[in-house]
Design a protein that fits this description.
D-Maltodextrin-Binding Protein, domain 2; 6-stranded mixed beta sheet; Dipeptide-binding Protein, domain 3; 3 domains; 4-stranded mixed beta sheet
């Protein structure tokens, strides 16, 4: 019996080693990615996190972790923050990451609406100050808009674009493809793939075709096409709801009256958007924060109330309104559906192509990520042009802050949507970041040498 037991143990151990060998990440190879937009499209084009790093980062659970900054601390009741830089980090051109380089990058990327009044370099520290408290600054600095790029070289010359400290560095852009090479000396470790090629302006249908033919490894799956992708047996990675589909409403001109904006909010049929346009993906919402994050999303009404919309509008006339969209895919269809809803409430709405700051209404998506509801709420409000800091330290205070923001009717929440991507059979260890985008730096390719 003991001999049989020993043989069985050897067989189990051998099978375990073989399984480990099959799943162990491989170095080498080129990862082929396709996107319908631009590689550098804001706020979440696939190139940003491959080339650049931030002072902080969010882990897969949305918790703030060190990145280019090792530690940080606040004083003066959140009016001042001090971030200590990670030593020995270099940009792709070999320049040393310094606090002065960080300040130059942040100054260039955040010229107007910043969470701080002043930022300065002191030795290995980057110091932020503000007249108002900044309780959520570490989480805000993890956003793509604050990633660090080289602005000036060590010789005092203006640096070319695309020089960061990230796991990949730009090598060229030809024939609609951005090529990136592995950063051998990356502070966070060398990525597994030798290179990444990002082909841009590829319609989703063409992306899926290339995936099936082996010409692409990672492609996009819009929320409204997730069911179709499953029917086609694509291998999909889908996030929890991390994008808020919302209608941003101007508060000037014809829409200066909050009752008119309230009428628009009451007139939109969220259920039709959810059931018809987005094919029952995500969740209907009347809140800025998803239920999984705040726990109180259900307290905000979501049902359409056409009678209330007509009552709020009363005899007020808003004149012809323009409604534009940010994004493609289902967005134009959703805009047309909203325009129909508003017409039934007595509004005249013209749908235009492409987002426009001059539009009365803009249908857009906001990223809602992170483990901290207050920080996520502040990020949504800042994305909508509201510079208000969210000071909430508990769920009740966060609920009150969100309720106050929604009463202004400048942002009308509609749906919480997931993000999804499909990948090919040779891709290993692909995971999603907290914002629902794929973490390509940690992915490897089967059979790579």
């Amino acid at each position: 019996m003991s001999r049989r037991f020993a043989i069985s143990c050897c067989l189990v151990a051998s099978m375990t080693l073989m399984a480990g060998a099959r799943t162990r990440p491989h170095y080498g190879g080129t990862l082929h990615v396709e996107t319908a937009g631009e590689a550098w499209q804001r706020p979440d084009g696939p190139a940003w996190r491959l080339v650049y790093d931030g002072l902080t980062q969010l882990d897969a659970s949305g918790v703030v972790r060190p990145a280019l900054a090792l530690t940080w601390e606040q004083d003066n009741n959140f009016h001042r923050w001090q971030f200590r830089l990670r030593p020995g980090v270099h940009f792709h051109d070999g320049s040393l990451l310094t606090s002065a380089a960080v300040v130059a990058s942040l100054t260039a990327s955040c010229k107007t609406v910043c969470p701080w009044n002043a930022v300065k370099a002191v030795g290995q520290f980057v110091i932020f100050t503000n007249d108002s408290p900044m309780p959520n600054l570490p989480a805000l600095l993890a956003n793509n808009e604050f990633l660090i790029t080289l602005v000036t070289t060590g010789e005092g010359q203006t640096a070319g674009g695309g020089i960061g400290t990230g796991p990949f560095q730009v090598t060229g852009f030809t024939n609609g493809a951005l090529t990136l090479a592995a950063n051998e000396n990356c502070w966070s470790g060398r990525p597994f793939a030798d290179a990444i090629e990002i082909r841009v302006h590829r319609p989703v249908r063409d992306q899926w075709l290339d995936l099936g033919l082996g010409r692409a490894d990672v492609v996009e799956v819009p929320a409204e096409q997730m069911r179709q992708a499953q029917q086609q047996h694509l291998t999909i990675l889908a996030s929890t709801p991390v994008e808020l589909l919302a209608l941003q409403v101007s508060d000037t001109g014809a829409l200066a009256n909050v009752k008119v904006r309230g009428a628009i909010a009451a007139a939109v049929d969220r259920s039709a958007l959810y059931n018809v346009i987005f094919q029952k993906q995500g969740e209907v919402t009347g809140s800025l924060l998803p239920q999984r994050m705040s726990g109180f999303s259900f307290l905000f009404p979501t049902d359409r109330d056409l009678a209330k919309a007509q009552e709020l509008r009363g005899g007020l006339t808003a004149g012809p309104l323009t409604l534009s969209t940010e994004g493609d895919g289902a967005m134009p269809l959703a805009a047309q559906r909203i325009a129909l809803n508003l017409h039934e409430a007595g509004f005249s709405v013209q749908v235009t192509n492409g987002g426009s700051q001059r539009s009365d209404l803009v249908l857009r998506e906001f990223a809602v990520v992170g483990a901290d509801p207050a920080a996520a709420l502040e990020q949504v409000l800042r994305s909508a042009g509201n510079e208000r800091a969210v000071m909430a330290q508990n769920p009740a205070a966060c609920y009150q802050a969100e309720q106050m923001a929604l009463e202004e009717k400048n942002v009308i929440p509609l749906l919480d949507l997931p993000r999804a991507f499909a990948f090919g059979p040779r891709v290993r260890d692909l995971r999603l970041r907290a914002d629902g985008t794929p973490d390509l730096a940690d992915a490897s390719l089967e059979g790579a040498r």
